[in-house]
Amino acid sequence: MLFMIIEHYRNGDARPVYERFRARGRLAPDGLRYVNSWVTPDLAHCYQVMECEDRALLDQWLAAWDDIVDFEVHPVITSADAAARVMRDPMTVRNAEATELDRLARVWFDAWRDAHEHLVPAELARVRTLESFRERLEAALPAVRVVGAPGEPVGLSMLKDAELYQLFVAASARGSGAAAALVADAEARLAAAGVETAWLACAIGNERAARFYEKCGWRRTGTVTNRVETPAGEFFLDVWRYEKDLRRLRGSRD
After folding, report:
1. How far is Cα 10 from Cα 21, in angstroms, rounded to an integer?
2. Average pLDDT, the chain
3. What pLDDT sits at residue 201?
């Protein structure tokens, strides 16, 4: 925690302060860190930034000087932190955190069951457990992108080569822009990696997802067979293949 300390030298006299500093140092207890300071040209006031996690340490330091200095104490944050707070957008796409694995697994599990369970073989549905989704997330964590407040993600995406490999959003976040933000982020990352034509697989019959992809500019190119690997073995599923030309995005970055 940062504090701006405004020091008013008693009677406008800086000499007692500098004499004590020369003789005894700053008198700051362990855990209190001096950051920087500025003195007014008339040598009557000092603006000093100190940092500590325990406010009691700051009070201890103030007590060592309050016989010759009057203090004003103002908690502050950096300009960068202030800008981040003002501009924070819950739909900003970011990297997933390890502490969010349980929450993300639940988002993925619930969204997958809602969209896919009735469209895939029962054998596949049985092995798609909550724990299986958590294990997949943990293994792929560095590549997982999410939207939502820290600790409360509401959607996730993953890439695999030129494929938008996974995209799932909690039911509560539908219509919020979360899915669109994840798609835009994925497209930008694929384009930055040199991919000209991205693709994704959409479960046949998932009309809601199909409409969304088409709204985002993806084009259905046909039906293909997708190989799905699970701990119980491989499954082969016919899926709709969607593609999108990313050359325009690449050009905007060059």
Report:
1. 15
2. 93
3. 97
Q: Record the pTM.
A: 0.65
pLDDT (tens digit, 9 = 90+) per residue, 98-151? 999 999 999 999 999 999 999 999 999 999 999 999 999 999 999 999 999 888
26, 63 contact by CB (below 8 A): no
**DSSP for residue 212:** H
Checking 13-19 for CB contacts under 8 A at 24+ apart, the result is 14/39, 14/43, 14/44, 16/68, 17/46, 17/65, 17/68, 17/69
Measured distance CA(15)–CA(21) in Å, rounded: 10
CA distance 246 to 128: 32
How would you classify the pairing of strands 152-160 and 69-76?
A: unpaired
Contact 167, 183 (CB under 8 A): yes
CB 228 within 8 A of CB 132: no
For every residue of 3-33, DSSP letters joined together read EEEEEEEGGG--HHHHHHHHHH---PPTT-E
Distance, in Å, from the CA atom of 254 to the CA atom of 246, rounded to the nearest integer, reads 13
Give mean pLDDT, residues 195-213: 97
Question: How does residue 92 score in pLDDT terms, banded at 50, 70 and 90?
Answer: confident
Instruction: Name which of 9, 1, 153 is nearest 75 in CA terms.
Output: 1
Amino acid found at 242: Y
Domains present along the chain, CATH in parentheses: 2-81 (3.30.70.1060), 89-253 (3.40.630.30)
pLDDT at 80: 75
